[in-house]
Specification:
By secondary structure, this protein is mainly α. The protein is built from four helices and two strands. InterPro entries: RuvA_2-like (IPR010994).
Length: 84
Amino acid sequence: MAIYNPTVDIDTASMDELQLLPGVGKKVADTIINIRDSEGRMTRELLTRIPHFREAEGLWSMVHFSKSETENSEVESEVEKRES
């Protein structure tokens, strides 16, 4: 039987969705949302700085950062255009 681990978009997830992640309780989820609202996005670095956040096994395979990933792709595309 296969185990299904859905990925959670840290940049758009609700409080309930964030709490599905291992090591993320109500306080950490609330902090993620507050940082995300003030910064416009969440990054792995910001996430690891949250008090009481712990990197549970398998966590990073269960999350993605859509806004950060989009920005990185746009920057990489711009660099590729300049190098051409």
